[in-house]
Amino acid sequence: MAKHECGLCREAEKQPADVTAFLLKDNNPHKPNRWLALPRTHAHSLADLTPAQRTALWTTAITKARELWGDEWGLAVNGAVRRSQCHIHIHIGKRLDEAESADFIAVDGPADIPLPRDDGGIFVEPAGAKLHVHLGDDAPELLLMR
Q: What pLDDT sits at residue 2?
């Protein structure tokens, strides 16, 4: 594991083997209100995870987001071209007002969140009993309060 340069990979290795997903406070001082949800499994993209692992990861992120922000949360996964860490992770934060757009897919829950095309970005936010999923923005974390 000493070969791993990615700090998130090192954090994943610290987790018990039976953990599917875990949370970390973002240690970037420019993002004091952010949390991260990560899979225990080493994966570079959401597509590298099984459907069950993705559902567990989204569920973990949504639970923390609701705890922190009620109905004003957002979840963001940057596209591969904008990621600075090799270990896939979901940014958890308070959704900015400009986050909502008319271009979304409504889904019933975490198991229904689609994979982004071509390892692009994905932004998820609550919409009543549904979730709105926005695809196509490679830096959706910019839609979250820092």
A: 46
Q: Lowest mean pLDDT of 11-20, 45-54, 100-109, 110-119, name the range.
A: 100-109
Residue of 8, 110, 28, 100 lying closest to 62 (CA atoms):
110
pLDDT digits (tens, 9 = 90+) for 30-65: 998 999 999 999 999 999 999 999 999 999 999 999
**How many CA atoms lie less than 13 Å away from 136 in the CB half-sphere?**
6
